[in-house]
Structures are given as C-alpha cells and as structure tokens.
User: Fold this.
Amino acid sequence: MSVNHGANLYDLSNKYGFTKDDFLDFSSNINPFGTSTLAKEYVINNINMVSVYPDPDYINLKESISSYCKCNVNNMILGSGATELISSFIATINPKKAVLISPAYSEYERELEKNNCEIIKYFSKANNNFQIDPVDLIDCINEDEFDLIIICNPNNPTGFTFSKYEIEVILKNTNAFVMVDETYIEFTNTDIYSSSSLVDTYDNLFVIRGTSKFFSTPGIRLGYGLIGNNDIKNNISKNLDLWNINIIASTMGEIMFKDREYISHCVDVILKERDYLTQSLTFFEDLKVFESKGNFILCKIKSKKITANELRSRLIPKKIIIRDCESFDGLDEYYFRVCVLKPDDNRYLIDNLRQVFI
Ligand SMILES: Cc1ncc(COP(=O)(O)O)c(C=O)c1O
Assistant:
C-alpha cells in the first residue's frame, strides 16, 4: 500500500513482531467501537446468504440510506467505498482543470492525474489555523475556467469544515462541478455541516459518503454518492459493475444505518473524547493543535524538538501508531495526526506523549 495512507498494519506487524490487534492505530481514523453489533450478528447468523446474488437494484439498502441521511433514493449511487465513487465521478466528468483544496486526502490528486487533469491547489494556511474563507476561495475559482472543485468536508487532515451554508455560497458562484467528500461528516452536527440536502437543488453538486470510518467497516467497502444531475448519475452508473456491492456489505448497510442506539453512542463518546484529546494535546507547549470537526486532530511540533517521523518511530514499540503528515502537500516534517480511540487508549497516548514532550 502507498505510504500516503494510514498505517499498513499487515506490514508493521510483520516488521515488529506484534499482531495487528496489538497495535493502537491512531492513524487510520476508524471508529474504535467497531461496527454495529446488530449488523454483525445478522451476518453471522445468516452467513449462507453468501450463496445468493445481491439484489441488483439494492432497494432495501437504498431505502435504509435514504432514511438515514434524509435523501431521495433516486439521487443515490452505491460504490465500493468512497474510493470507487471518487474515481468514477472524476472519470465520468473527465475534468480538464480542477481546484483542489489542500492539504487534503491524497486520492483526489491521484485520480485527477489518472485523467490528465490540470490541478490548481488552493492552500489553507497554518497561520490561519487552516480555516478557509469561502469568499477568498470563490475569488480563486473565478480567476480561471475550472470544471471541478474538490472539497473534503471535514477536511482530512486539517479538520476544517465548511458549513452547508458556505458550500451553498460556493455553489451559487460557480458553474464548475463541486465534489464534496463527506467521509467524516458523522462526527459533526450534520444539520449544520452536511450538504446532502443541497443535491436536490444544485445540479453541479456530488456528495460522497463512506461507511469505513464512522461505521468502522473499511473491510466491506461500502459508500454512496448523492447527486441530482440525472445525466451524470446515469453515466456513472453505466460504468459501474453489476453487483458492485457484495451481499455482506449490502445486508450490513440495511441494518447499521438504522441502528440508532449504536450511532448515538458512538457520536457521544467520540465527541467527548475528541474534546479530551484536544485539551490534553494543547497542554503540551511543544505542540500547536488545530481544532477539528472530524474524529482526528492535526498537530504541529512547533518546538521542532523531534520530527513527526521520529515521534512515530518512538511510539511504535509502545504499540502506538500515529500518522506522520509530511507526505501531505502543504505540511512539513513536523506535522502529525492522531484519531480518537477509546477513553483508556487516548489516555495511554497522552501518557506516552508526556514522556517525549515533558
Ligand atoms: C477523506 C477520505 N475520503 C475517502 C477515504 C476512503 O474511504 P473508503 O474506505 O470509503 O473508500 C478516506 C480514507 O482514509 C478519506 O480519508
């Protein structure tokens, strides 16, 4: 796997002689509570379903998603993770020139490059806490002819998040397609920050949602895209494989989106723990901590006492993996990112950081 992603636990466990489960993975931004027990038990008790093809129209799954994110079933495309939707949307609209808000998740750039698209990066700045003024972004967009604007919301790795109102201001001021990756949206107040309701109004908006992070299901590869533009929706769908969502992913999806108790428990604990981690990290004078609306927090070792890579190496024997963020364009060797894990694990991380920074 590319070095541009969270930890490759397969590789690390071979290298260090630990099992994959021994590690506390603060690098992959995955909900530490695992997936919905209701969904897991259903799969275990009905495992013979693997001998049946999934419903090619995924009617039950789409209805479950529709009631979960209050969106129209007809505006939905299912994908094998957010990854397949990022890739197929970009391939379908085949942009010539795109604005990429940076630093951001690296796959957008890879997909744009695959399609020979010219990329103009709009950098959010550390000295502005990586906040972005939509008016300044619009000025940049209007300086040239772009066919696509890519926004990761909340942004991985900075944690900055546009409100739905701000996304709407951007949409009103451009004819370019706007792709909003909402992989981490469940860690925000979705009424304020999610753009999913805007797809009914704006033909140039594509909202992508995954399940890997919040529902802790990266292994089943399930994501969905929301789009009101029928031509683009049909063109994306035409190029997707029949049965692109396997029966375990589709069945789990039908159940987990409706598991309200699981959803509210995860939101409650993770948001409390994000506050705990933010405050505890802020306490270290060596660090600058950036406020995040995701389940991860970006930090800079402002004292330059140690690089992020050295810090990562010092923590691995303690079975802690953090994300060294040097590979993100716009960040340097002193940036690292940690995600929120369970309460005891977060305290273990802080105790170990104390040994380095105090
Ligand atoms: C912003 C963002 N989008 C998409 C993905 C990939 O998601 P999926 O597993 O749903 O393909 C990631 C994974 O780290 C991510 O951080």
